[in-house]
Design brief:
The chain is of the alpha/beta class and 751 residues long. It has 3 domains: 164 residues, Rossmann fold, CATH 3.40.50.880; 332 residues, Catalase HpII,  Chain A, domain 1, CATH 2.40.180; 68 residues, Hemocyanin, N-terminal domain (Up-down Bundle). It is 27% helix and 14% strand. It is built from 22 helices and 18 strands. Strands 1, 2, 3, 4, 5, 6, 7, 8, 9 and 10 form a 10-stranded antiparallel β-sheet that branches. The longest helix has 17 residues. The radius of gyration is 28 Å and the shape is globular. The chain starts with a helix and ends in a 15-residue tail after the last helix. Bound molecules: CIS-heme D hydroxychlorin gamma-spirolactone (HDD). The site of CIS-heme D hydroxychlorin gamma-spirolactone (HDD) has 25 residues, from strand 2, strand 3, strand 4 and helix 13. InterPro entries: Catalase, Catalase_AS, Catalase_clade2, Catalase_clade2_helical, Catalase_core, Catalase_immune_responsive, Catalase_large_C, Catalase_sf. This is Catalase. Pfam families: Catalase, Catalase-rel, Catalase_C. Keywords: Heme, Hydrogen peroxide, Iron, Metal-binding, Oxidoreductase, Peroxidase. One of its GO terms (molecular function) is catalase activity.
């Protein structure tokens, strides 16, 4: 017992838990094969689909890493110097005129140190301020040359380095990870024809249809300007005032109020390019395209009570989760899928594909997998990479193009513009994390913080003095797709943009019972926080256009009468193509069935059954689970019979929210101690209420009884053991793979 458990005490065994050393060195291009990626239906032929696992992985996945090594700095074994490289003799004392005398102005060492410190902060992003990022690569399944000339899709097995940043939207840089919010999913592809930034979200639609409204939306959702509250929350008057006056936001509201707004992990959420983009092939032919990232681990979320508690227990919950998974060699993977369709297809749809508040149902156009993305390396420095990375929707490469989506048009301007003030000038493309792998040659010169040293006397074009260089690429360069003339200049929107509710209804009707219940609870919670009742009434009136069942349930929870439906912009909305889209439920993507990187607590106290602890811990670690022995305090304790154990977490520093499941081993003395510890009872009640997988061994079942949790055979996640620990552990692992057990939920919670 001591040996096994000792190995996981105080993180000493972390490498073994997460994988061996070799797997944790992705720099050499370690290739983790994709275990049967589960994605939606495909319109590719069978041979094309079965062809998608790449047989010959190319070594050296992260070319971008080599480029960054040019600027890496490592002080190991080095002397302390000033910024000018002058060795510093004393870093503890400023220069003074006498030991008790005044500090001297000529102390350039003190002044340089303080001055640099004074300027360490840069403005945070106006939205998506809080985020976490990682390096990795994208790997193409098969050539897509018939559809696009984009070089990253040109060859089977071709790898393109990526840097990906996930984020919340509303909170400030230091806010919590588990706020109810949209999550950013921004991917920078360092292609060999320049950088392509696919700046998406974990939700396939957006709140508004036109960039003209974006500053208003953001002002409404951010902390209210008079008192600076609330932080990282949409549950306040100004947000609901704005969205209740903006019916086009209703569809997106459904997604944000669903469990999509509180993901379990960045690794377990989808990503979407949101807008309709264009693929353009070498012949100049174009198809419309929507981009989808589907996580191999499946789509999983927290429940609200859990998200609230985890925000206190670990405000860095998602950042830590991503970092630890990559650090341990379990870098997350997504499949990139595309919905490809023609302009003629689009014209037939009941909605406008230029309207970012609408999605294209997968039943209408299937999602076809075209490649996979693996994140396998953590940044070396948060500021240099994660903070300074500058994503811009304007960063696009030959073979891709924009459409006339009016939201996208504003974005093409906004991102470049914002980087100029955020990163201090127009040369932000030279910051190492932003610099393309493709060579850069143009006549743009100078500006703040210029790094390149341009040679020669020619900085204009045309020229003869430099032989005409750099010369125009002509058709080999980026050629904008010739969009046909679309009419007179005017302010307004196309007719189909005026239908606001069909897809909100589609989303609600496509959810399971428990997902619908969570949506109702979320609306009721957010609206309960409003101080102006009229806003609440207007919002519930709007929900009547989505579903009377939803509106009534929300109204009941708010103790209010059901208002008349909000008048619609169009009296006769077009009939939607589909009534239900199973792909919109979180349950559509259960994941690969594995439990690697999931976290499990084994509750221990003096006198615990050490044999059971050891057997269960062994089985879990073998399955890739991260195990913590959670004690009444951290440190050594004695198992039944005297064997030494070491608790590497405590009921105070690791409450149940940070775990995916918990095990209570037997051992009479231990169970008696835990029965008298309110924290242990609270731990189990929370874990139960949050739908976690729970296992009791031997007398451990008595602790559940004390917590008010009764055995229930219908609950697939409540295993009251009885059998041998190893056998129980196997059943526990199977239940853990289901992520959560919503079938036990009652309204209000019984425990
Ligand atoms: Fe945006 C950041 C995603 C609409 C203006 N946005 C930002 C980030 C993501 C998105 C993921 C963070 C990038 C990073 O990690 O650095 N934004 C979206 C999506 C949208 C969207 C999916 C709708 C489809 N955004 C949108 C509009 C505008 C902006 C309509 C302005 C007209 N977004 C910005 C910005 C930010 C930004 C102000 C803030 C920081 C930054 O760009 O670099 O320019």
């Amino acid at each position: 017992v001591g040996a096994t458990v000792g190995a996981i005490a105080h993180n000493a065994g972390k490498p073994e838990e997460y994988g061996d050393k070799a797997a944790r060195c992705p720099y050499t291009g370690a290739h983790v094969p994709l275990a049967d990626p589960s994605v939606g239906a495909s319109s590719l032929s069978e041979s094309e689909v079965s062809d998608k696992t790449v047989d010959a992985a190319q070594p050296g996945a992260n070319e971008a890493d080599g480029r960054l090594s040019r600027v890496r700095s490592d002080a190991t074994g080095q002397m302390l110097t000033t910024n000018q490289g002058v060795p510093v003799s004393d870093n503890q004392h400023s220069l003074k005129a006498g030991l008790r005398g005044p500090a001297l102005l000529k102390d350039f060492i003190l002044r340089e140190k303080i001055t640099h410190f004074d300027h360490e902060r840069i403005p945070e992003r106006i939205v998506h301020a809080r985020g976490s990022a990682a390096h990795g690569y994208f790997e193409c399944y098969k050539p897509l040359t018939d559809l696009t000339a984009a070089s990253l899709f040109a060859e089977k097995g071709k790898r393109t380095p990526v840097f990906v940043r996930f984020s919340t939207v509303a909170g400030e840089r230091g806010s919590k990870d588990t706020a109810r919010d949209v999550r950013g999913f921004a991917v920078k592809f360092y292609t060999d024809e320049g950088n392509w930034d696919l700046v998406g979200n974990n939700i396939p639609v957006f709140f508004i249809q036109d960039a003209m409204k974006f500053p208003d939306l953001v002002h409404a959702v951010k902390a209210e300007p008079h008192h600076g509250m609330p932080q990282a929350a949409s549950a306040h008057d100004t947000f609901w005032d704005f969205v209740s006056l903006m019916p086009e936001s209703t569809h997106m509201l459904m997604w944000v109020m669903s469990d999509r707004g509180i993901p379990r992990s960045y690794r377990m959420m989808q990503g979407f390019g949101v807008h309709t983009f264009r693929f353009v092939n070498a012949q100049g032919e174009s198809r419309l395209v929507k981009f989808h990232w589907n996580p191999v681990l499946g789509t999983h979320s927290q429940v609200w009570d859990e998200a609230v508690k985890v925000s206190g227990a670990d405000p860095d919950f998602h950042r830590r989760d991503l970092w630890e998974a990559i650090d341990g060699g379990n870098g997350p993977q997504w499949e990139l899928g595309v919905q490809v369709f023609t302009e003629e297809d689009a014209e037939r749809f009941s909605f406008d594909v230029l309207d970012a508040t609408k999605l294209v149902p997968e039943e209408l156009v299937p999602v076809v997998p075209i490649g996979r993305m693996v994140l396998d390396r953590n940044p070396d420095n948060f500021f240099a990479e994660t903070e300074q990375v500058a994503f811009c929707t304007a960063h696009i490469v030959p073979g891709l193009d924009f459409t006339n989506d009016p939201l996208l048009a504003g974005r093409i301007h906004s991102y470049v513009d914002t980087q100029i003030s955020r990163l201090g000038g127009p040369n932000f493309h030279e910051i190492p994390i932003n610099a393309p792998l493709a060579p850069v040659h143009n006549n743009q010169r100078d500006g703040m913080h210029r790094q390149a040293i341009h040679r020669g006397r020619v900085a204009y074009e045309p020229n003869s003095l430099a032989g005409g260089c750099p010369f125009q690429a002509g058709m080999a360069g980026f050629v904008s797709f010739p969009e046909p003339d679309t009419g007179d200049e005017l302010r307004g929107h196309p007719e189909k943009f005026a239908e606001h509710y069909n897809q909100a209804t589609l989303f609600f009707n496509s959810q399971t019972d428990w997902e619908q219940a969570h949506i109702i609870n979320a609306f009721a919670f957010e609206l309960s926080k409003l101080t102006v009742p009229a806003i609440r009434v207007r919002m519930v009136a709007s929900l009547r256009n989505v579903s009377d069942e939803l509106a009534q349930a929300v109204a009941d929870k708010l103790g209010m009468a059901l208002p008349e439906p909000l008048p619609r912009a169009i009296a006769q909305p077009p009939k939607a193509e589909v009534d239900v889209s199973p792909a919109l439920s979180l349950t559509a993507r259960p994941g690969d069935g594995g439990v690697a990187t999931r976290k499990v607590a084994i509750l221990v106290a003096e006198g615990v059954d050490g044999g059971a602890v050891s057997a269960v811990a062994d089985a879990l670690i073998k399955a890739g689970v991260v195990v913590r022995l959670v004690g009444q305090r951290i440190g050594p304790l004695h198992a039944e019979g005297g064997a030494a154990l070491d608790a590497d977490a405590s009921l105070d520093n690791h409450p149940s929210g940070v775990f995916d499941g918990a095990v209570v081993p037997g051992g009479e003395a231990a169970v008696t101690r835990l029965q008298a510890d309110g924290r242990a009872l609270e731990f189990l009640r929370d874990a139960f209420r949050h739908g976690k997988t729970l296992l009791a061994l031997g007398r451990g079942a008595q602790l559940f009884g004390s917590a008010g949790i009764a055995p229930n055979d219908a609950d697939g996640g409540l295993l009251m053991g009885g059998g041998a620990p190893a056998k129980s552990a196997a059943a526990f692992i199977e239940a853990l793979a289901k992520h959560r057990h919503p079938e036990r939920e009652t309204q209000p919670p019984a425990v």
